[in-house]
């Protein structure tokens, strides 16, 4: 009898614990009933939300938000770059669009090497030689053609109005512009719009961009790839010594791709496929973590950090060797993502001692970071969801600004591996799979993701941050699911990062005590204490059990959730 009583109490306790985990975290971010846009700038979120409010769908809002970011957030928002979109329609259909830049026709494997075979500093990162063929305009027109519901002029007109009205400079923006001003002047000379420095509260107007957008609204996609804009762009890039030709622009196409889809416990995760490494690497990390009950370790505890780090170390080693543009290289996805392979990969992991990256090579089947990309998440009133990450690569891309057209050009060519074994600007070491070839797309880490729970839309999520994108997005999903945080809490929680090489963990400034770091060091982990950068800038939406939406707008930037 006594035993039965004890057993009964235990059962009640256990079921309360299970209930606690199942109980949805109380929202702490903006909550709206119908629809939401979360992006890096309030102006862009407002334009996206207004498009939804006037009856547009998530795809119309994608087009407006993408271009509004080019106006309000030229640091990463762009016409001269590219990106990836993952979507989930309200009927459960999912898909992905690749509007990544690609190498010009004249590109070749050794184009950034000198006669001795050494990488020429700056050639793939700064100025016209770093520019890949831009994909953004092709991307938004693909999205609009396939899924849009409003006329393109109705979507572009609020963006053009924003260009005319101008954008108020925020504190973070003023600091960024000041920080990069010298480099922008170095690349563009003194006649650029950015010659004058600006202060917080100033209004920045880009009349040339207004003209470009008006021509695009009138003439469509071809204006950018074949029309007057194309001709002006090509003669500008070539005058500055770059490689992109009119033929390159004419041949550019965005490509619909099958996303990476996998289960993590009772979640179904839909993320970006190659040429982004985001989905594959996140899939590997989560599947290596899945056999452990990470929620029983405290959030950001020694054990949780060890488990995440060891999974990341192994996944990034594979990323750097096997992944590249799937139209150019065979990626053994069936093996890389199989449970058998991933279980074997973690076979030597123990909580007693760090594995050394020098002992981890790619699987045997045969970084310096900041937040210069941008991500936005959209859910519309019909339940369609869009997750988009878009970039110029570095801050203001190659720093090359076309004053006549009003936008910056990417330096995405640096995402290729210029020479096997030599790290790129994110410290990522590439291999043959990501070597340069004409018309090839460079490997990305962008991870626009959608998560379903119980077959229903649950999270829309993504981040900037170069190589740290994948760990930032994965940790935020774990925060929400395993550690039962609200969307806003999950986004704000302190993050850490490990990418195989260099073999060290990087921590954000807050949230990681000296004793925690000491306990990791005692187990053989290297910690980079010189740098405590921002790791990603996650913008996400969570669908609450009653159907309302909670925004997670990263406090690390000017990011804002807007909805109704
Ligand atoms: O595609 C990529 O992975 C990079 N071009 C992303 C760059 C980025 O996130 C910049 N921010 N640090």
Question: What features would you describe in this structure?
Answer:
The structure is a single chain. By secondary structure, the protein is of the alpha+beta class. It has helices at 2-22, 42-53, 58-72, 136-147, 152-165, 171-188, 207-219, 221-225, 228-239, 246-251, 278-289, 302-322, 333-336, 339-345, 468-481, 487-492, 514-522; strands at 31-32, 36-39, 82-88, 94-99, 167-168, 203-204, 255-257, 260-264, 267-271, 373-379, 385-391, 401-402, 407-408, 449-453, 456-461, 496-497, 506-507, 539-543, 549-553, 560-563. The strands form five sheets. Strands 1-19-18-15-14-9-8 form a seven-stranded antiparallel β-sheet. The protein binds 6-diazenyl-5-OXO-L-norleucine. Residues 369-373, 391, 393, 412, 415, 444-446, 464-466, 469 line the site of 6-diazenyl-5-OXO-L-norleucine.
């Amino acid at each position: 009898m006594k035993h039965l009583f004890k057993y009964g109490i235990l059962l009640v306790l256990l079921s309360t614990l299970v209930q606690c985990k199942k109980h949805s975290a109380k929202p702490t971010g903006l909550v709206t009933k119908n629809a939401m846009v979360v992006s890096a700038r309030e102006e862009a979120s407002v334009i996206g939300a207004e498009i939804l409010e006037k009856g547009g769908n998530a795809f119309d809002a994608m087009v407006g938000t993408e271009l509004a970011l080019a106006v309000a957030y030229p640091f990463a928002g762009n016409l001269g770059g590219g990106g990836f979109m993952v979507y989930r329609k309200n009927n459960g259909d999912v898909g992905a669009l690749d509007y990544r830049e690609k190498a010009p026709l004249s590109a070749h494997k050794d184009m950034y090497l000198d006669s001795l075979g050494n990488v020429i500093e700056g050639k793939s990162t700064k100025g016209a030689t770093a520019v890949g063929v831009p994909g953004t305009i092709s991307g938004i027109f693909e999205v609009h053609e396939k899924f849009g519901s409003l006329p393109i002029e109705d979507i572009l007109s609020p963006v053009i109005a924003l260009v005319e009205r101008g954008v108020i400079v925020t504190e973070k923006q003023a600091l960024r512009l000041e920080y990069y001003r010298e480099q922008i002047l170095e690349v563009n000379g003194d006649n650029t719009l950015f010659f004058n420095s600006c202060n917080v509260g100033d209004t920045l107007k880009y009349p040339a961009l207004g003209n470009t957008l008006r021509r695009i609204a009138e003439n469509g996609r071809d204006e950018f790839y074949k029309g007057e804009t194309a001709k002006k762009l090509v003669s500008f890039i070539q005058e500055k010594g770059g490689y992109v030709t009119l033929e390159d622009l004419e041949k550019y196409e965005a490509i619909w791709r099958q996303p990476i889809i996998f289960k993590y416990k009772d979640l179904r995760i839909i993320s970006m496929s190659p040429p982004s490494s985001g989905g594959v690497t996140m899939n590997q990390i989560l599947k290596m973590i899945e056999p452990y009950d990470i929620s029983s370790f405290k959030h950001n505890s020694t054990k949780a950090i060890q488990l995440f780090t060891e999974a990341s170390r192994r996944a990034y080693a594979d990323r750097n060797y096997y992944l590249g543009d799937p139209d150019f290289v065979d990626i053994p996805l069936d093996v890389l993502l199989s449970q058998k392979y991933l279980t074997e990969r973690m076979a030597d992991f123990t909580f007693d001692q760090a594995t050394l990256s020098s002992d981890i090579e790619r699987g045997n089947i045969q970084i310096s970071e900041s937040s210069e990309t941008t991500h936005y998440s959209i859910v519309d009133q019909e339940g369609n969801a869009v997750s988009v990450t878009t970039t110029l690569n570095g801050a203001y891309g190659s720093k090359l600004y076309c004053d006549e057209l009003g936008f910056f050009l990417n330096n995405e060519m640096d995402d290729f591996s210029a020479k096997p074994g030599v790290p790129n600007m994110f410290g990522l070491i590439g291999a043959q799979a990501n070597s340069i070839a004409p018309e090839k797309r460079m490997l990305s880490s962008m991870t626009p993701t959608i998560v379903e729970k119980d077959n229903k839309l649950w999270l829309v999520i993504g981040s900037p941050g170069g190589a740290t994108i994948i760990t930032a997005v994965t940790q935020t999903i774990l925060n929400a699911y395993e550690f039962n945080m609200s969307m806003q809490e999950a986004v704000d929680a302190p993050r850490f990062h490990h990418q195989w090489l260099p073999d060290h963990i990087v921590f954000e400034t807050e949230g990681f005590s000296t004793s925690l770091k000491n306990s990791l060091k005692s187990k053989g982990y290297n910690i980079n204490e010189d740098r405590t950068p921002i790791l990603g800038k996650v913008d996400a939406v969570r669908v609450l059990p009653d159907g309302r939406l909670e925004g997670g707008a990263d406090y690390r930037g000017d990011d804002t959730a807007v909805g109704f």
